[in-house]
Design brief:
The chain is mainly alpha-helical. The chain has one domain (1-69). Helices cover 89% and strands 0% of the residues. The chain is built from 4 helices and no strands. It has helices spanning 3-21, 26-36, 40-50, 52-97. Helix 2 runs antiparallel to helix 3 (40-50) and helix 2 crosses helix 4 (52-97). The radius of gyration is 22 Å and the shape is elongated. It is a multi-pass membrane protein.
């Protein structure tokens, strides 16, 4: 068994208990679970074991986080491309000056 699997199992069991002990609302628990739990299937399991509303909200939060990776990767790719173009331009300028 991997450490990730063990931590996911722990979170599925412990998060609903901790959420109830802290008196979290469905939305607060869903937000907490959607951001703190790593695996999407574990988020769904931990969210719906608290309540249907918490499960729905936790799933939305997790999927939003997962989909935002696309925009972050595209932004960093654009930044990297611009830096490479500047680097290439500087090399061409140095060659022309020599």
């Amino acid at each position: 068994m991997s450490a990730t699997f063990l931590f996911d199992m722990f979170m599925i069991i412990a998060f609903p208990i901790m959420g109830r002990a802290m008196g979290q609302s469905d939305m607060a628990y869903g937000l907490w679970t959607g951001t703190a739990v790593n695996d999407t299937s574990s988020v769904v399991a931990a969210g719906f074991s608290y309540s249907d509303a918490a499960g729905d909200f936790a799933t939305m939060v997790k999927l939003t986080r997962s989909l935002s990776i696309i925009s972050v990767v595209l932004i960093f790719r654009l930044i990297h491309h611009r830096l490479e173009v500047k680097k290439w331009d500087m090399n061409m300028l140095k060659r022309n000056l020599c």
